[in-house]
Amino acid sequence: MSLVAERTERTRPLTHPLRPEFLRGFAPMAGAAVLLTLAVALAVPAESWQGGWKETRAHVHTAAQLLGVPMALAAGCWQGGRERRRRTTELMATAVRGSLARFLASALPVALWTAVGHLVAAALALLATWYCATGDSPYLLVPLVDTVVVGCAALAGAVVGRMLPWRPAAPSLAVAAYVTLGVLAYGSAGALGHLSPIAHDSGHKVPVWWQPLATATWMGGLALAAVLAHAARRRATAALPLAAAIAAGALLVQTGDGLVRTNPVARHQVCDTSTTPQICVNARHEKLLPQITEALSGLTGRLEGVQNLPLRFEDRPGRSRADEVQLPMLTPFGSNVVRGRLADPERYAWEAGMMLIGRAWCDRTDPVVGRTDRAVEHYLAPSPAEAHFDEIDAKGDKARRVEFKAQQQARARLLAMSEEERRSWLSEYFATADECDPSGVPTL
After folding, report:
1. pTM to 2 decimals?
2. Which of 165, 212, 225, 227 could form a disulfide with 241 if both were Cys (CB 3.0 to 4.6 A apart)?
3. For residues 418-433, average pLDDT
């Protein structure tokens, strides 16, 4: 009987002592909670980032830091207080393993699972953008660094949980982290705001390539220093990661606004030169060019052969040049562009037509000139709501009905012209399209 038991014991596969911690208990649930929270936070405004790599990176990064880091801190803090809640602190102190090994056996599974939860959420967001990306390329370094930061936050939380004998410590730590990160990133923290792991990028700005690495060193160094100072046999070893964290933090503060730069891709445009005016889109959205060209095909077809037009529609940061006009805005996503598609091509064409008429900035416009502008607008690309307002004007009071009749007559005069006559008239009209003085504007 003893031989059978001995053979059974020999053939039984060896199990790593950390396996139960990784596969069961609190750690997997913490990772699932981080994944679910980030997935919900990203899914609700998905139309505002899906389709743009920069927008995807910014939303995933912000969610990771404002939600993932506080949750990881809370999860680590709760795990760190486990021995005290079970009243096994004195028993664990008699174990053969050193204090650092015991700490890592408890905290490392939570750190890895929360990091994996973030990594899966980030991967899902990147996949959601990949199939409808409008151009540019993914920013993989930032989500990878965020994963490291989330894991380090769990380790730091475990240290707090061991040192602070208070049951509400975990949620309190999460709330404090959320407020602190928010104030550093969006409050009036001055130069210290650059210590926030939330990247300070907006518009066409992106972080410099080393900013995520410096932030990971800053956050990870503090977490590792806390772990070593609490659990290492030689606590002086905490000085090395602490020095690295201080150096990285000093670099972030001193660099200041230099932590972001203009996206190199955003400086370039991709153009369709076969139309009048030419149509150029920012290189970040080059895959939208065929859709935009198709949406504006009616407008550009009616302008073929017309003189005194801007050379092109442009889509670059900053003001348009003298011979260019701004293309209707493509960003922020969720309005004109949703999941890599133009949401309303008809409305987009109308907005482009309105860009060609600069009198919208005049303080006052002559009624006859305004009527002429609206007739040209109707001919090039009418507003999707034009029929609705025409119906209201046709049923309005006497003054509105008279103005509506005059507007209909102006439209009819423009449409009644021959092709050559209309091109000549439009050429004369666009020569004065941005003038507020009505004396030189041809009218209908």
Report:
1. 0.83
2. 225
3. 92
